[in-house]
């Protein structure tokens, strides 16, 4: 076999190392080129997005610049309206409470008036009943007694039955016979 001296081995190792460094440099340059292309593509896409978003942002900024005072005005108006409504509702609540109190007082008053009127009607009814019914009962009793007298006087003579006996087996009254 060949006998390699140390210089040759060193030369081979240096050549292999140089080849490795050259290959590494080639790989790094290839990576750098691909990163640069990707960066350019991304930069181009970002510019496209920027160019399409820029008008929207400008229009939005202009819109907000124009509308912001109106929004402030509307929010202030809403706050004022809310405050006014709260004040009016509080006033309305007090008025409603006062009306309800008056209605309750009037209801109590009307109730006591009706109760008094009904009590008076009841007392008058009792008085009239007592004042009228007593004489009416007396007059009614007089008429009833007069009627009874008239009926007794105008009635035919009563038919008297005799007890049944040997002379009268049916017990009928014979006006020719006087017992």
Would you kindly provide a written description of the structure presented here, covering whatever features stand out?
This protein is mostly helical. The protein is built from one helix and no strands. It has one helix at 6-154. It is elongated and about 200 Å long. The mean pLDDT is 86.
- Helices, by number, come to 1
What Rg is obtained from the alpha carbons, in whole angstroms? 67 Å
What's the SSE pattern? H
Strand content: under 5%
Q: In one word, what is the shape?
A: elongated
Q: Largest sheet at a glance?
A: none
**Low-confidence blocks of residues:** none
The level of helicity is over 70%
Return the average pLDDT rounded to an integer.
Answer: 86
Distance between the amino and carboxyl termini: 199 Å
Instruction: Give the beta-strand count.
Output: 0
Report the structural category: mainly alpha
Structural features:
single chain; 179 residues; mainly alpha
Layout of helices and strands:
Layout: H1 6-154
Give the gist of this structure.
With 179 residues, this protein is an all-alpha fold. The chain has one helix at residues 6-154.
């Amino acid at each position: 076999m060949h006998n390699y001296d140390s210089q040759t081995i060193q030369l081979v190792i240096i050549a292999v190392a140089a080849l490795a460094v050259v290959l590494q440099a080639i790989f790094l340059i290839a990576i750098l080129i691909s990163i640069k292309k990707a960066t350019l593509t991304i930069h181009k896409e970002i510019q496209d997005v920027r160019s399409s978003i820029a008008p929207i942002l400008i229009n939005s900024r202009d819109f907000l610049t124009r509308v912001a005072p109106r929004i402030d005005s509307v929010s202030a108006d809403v706050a004022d309206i809310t405050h006014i409504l709260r004040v009016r509702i509080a006033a309305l609540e007090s008025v409603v409470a006062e009306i309800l109190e008056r209605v309750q007082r009037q209801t109590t008053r009307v109730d006591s008036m009706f109760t008094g009127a009904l009590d008076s009607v009841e007392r008058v009814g009792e008085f009239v009943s007592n004042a009228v019914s007593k004489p009416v009962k007396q007059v009614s009793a007089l008429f009833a007694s007069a009627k009874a007298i008239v009926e007794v006087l105008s009635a035919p003579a009563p038919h008297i039955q005799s007890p049944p006996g040997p002379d009268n087996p049916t017990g009928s009254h014979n006006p020719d016979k006087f017992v």
